[in-house]
């Protein structure tokens, strides 16, 4: 199927803010779909969610946390055992190495706790900027905006950004919002990407943003042409 091109220019700042305001109204209770009880469980779940559905992660983590309920336990875990538990999440060998090494880093440097500072989080194995941003925003209520594949796709289709990297997208979106809404905006865009602005073809015919979205006319034109 032909891939939709992203818009070649940004919408105006006023239009971008209008679209974000509509997304806030559409998804007022948006939050992570990952199930967790503490920052340790959230961090592990986010690492496991890479190239895997949240639903699959939620089916996997109960057994993992029953066996390894904290960083101390996971730091001492057998890699083979962890691999077997998380195998259905995909890329399980690399993920097992990362979560065990991250737990060891927490034990060695942070008393077994998940650090609440970006630099310390990103120093843990397997924890990149996206994972750190999710943990900071969701577990610690800090101003942080995570860019995953849904956020990257939707922000580009809406013409909010032309950014080539997740950091560029983060900069463009957060520049439009007060800091206290950064973490919420991440979830607005994710939910919109899952429900309406899907890959590869968005459901523009039912999208409340279609009247101001630069991608919608292209999609609707193709639909009318029977493509």
Question: What's the order of the H and E elements?
Answer: HHHHHHHHHHHH
CATH class of the largest domain: Mainly Alpha
The fraction of residues assigned to DSSP E strands is: under 5%
CATH superfamily of the largest domain: Hypothetical protein, domain 2
Query: If you average the pLDDT, what whole number results?
Result: 95
Could you give the distance between the termini?
10 Å
From the 3D coordinates, which CATH architecture of the largest domain would you assign? Orthogonal Bundle
Please describe what this structure looks like.
With 227 residues, the protein is mainly alpha-helical. The chain has 2 domains: 13-30 and 146-224, Orthogonal Bundle (Endonuclease Iii, domain 2); 39-139, Hypothetical protein, domain 2 (Endonuclease III, domain 1). 56% of the residues lie in helices and 0% in strands. It is built from 12 helices and no strands. It has helices at 13-26, 39-48, 54-67, 71-75, 79-86, 92-110, 118-122, 129-139, 149-157, 166-174, 182-195, 216-224. Helix 1 crosses helix 11 (182-195) and helix 9 (149-157) crosses helix 11. The protein is elongated and about 60 Å long. The N and C termini lie close together (10 Å). The mean pLDDT is 95.
């Amino acid at each position: 199927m032909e891939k939709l091109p992203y818009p070649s220019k940004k919408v105006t700042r006023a239009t971008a803010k209008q679209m974000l305001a509509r997304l806030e109204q559409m998804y007022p209770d948006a939050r992570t779909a990952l199930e967790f009880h503490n920052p340790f469980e959230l961090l592990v779940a986010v690492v496991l969610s890479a190239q895997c559905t949240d639903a699959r992660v939620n089916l996997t983590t109960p057994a993992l946390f029953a066996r390894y309920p904290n960083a101390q336990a996971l730091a001492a875990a057998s890699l083979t055992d962890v691999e077997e538990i998380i195998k259905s999440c995909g890329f399980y060998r690399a993920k097992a190495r990362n979560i065990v090494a991250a737990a060891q880093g927490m034990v060695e440097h942070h008393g077994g706790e998940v650090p609440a500072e970006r630099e310390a989080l990103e120093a843990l194995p397997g924890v990149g900027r996206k994972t750190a941003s999710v943990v900071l925003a969701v577990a610690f209520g800090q101003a942080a905006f995570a860019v995953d594949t849904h956020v990257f796709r939707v922000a580009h289709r809406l013409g909010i950004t032309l950014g080539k990297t997740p950091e560029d997208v983060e900069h463009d979106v957060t520049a439009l919002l007060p800091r206290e809404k950064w973490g919420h905006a991440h979830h607005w865009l994710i939910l919109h990407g899952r429900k309406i602005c899907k890959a590869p073809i968005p459901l523009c015919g039912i999208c409340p943003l279609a009247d101001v979205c630069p991608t919608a006319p292209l999609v609707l034109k193709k639909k009318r042409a029977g493509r």
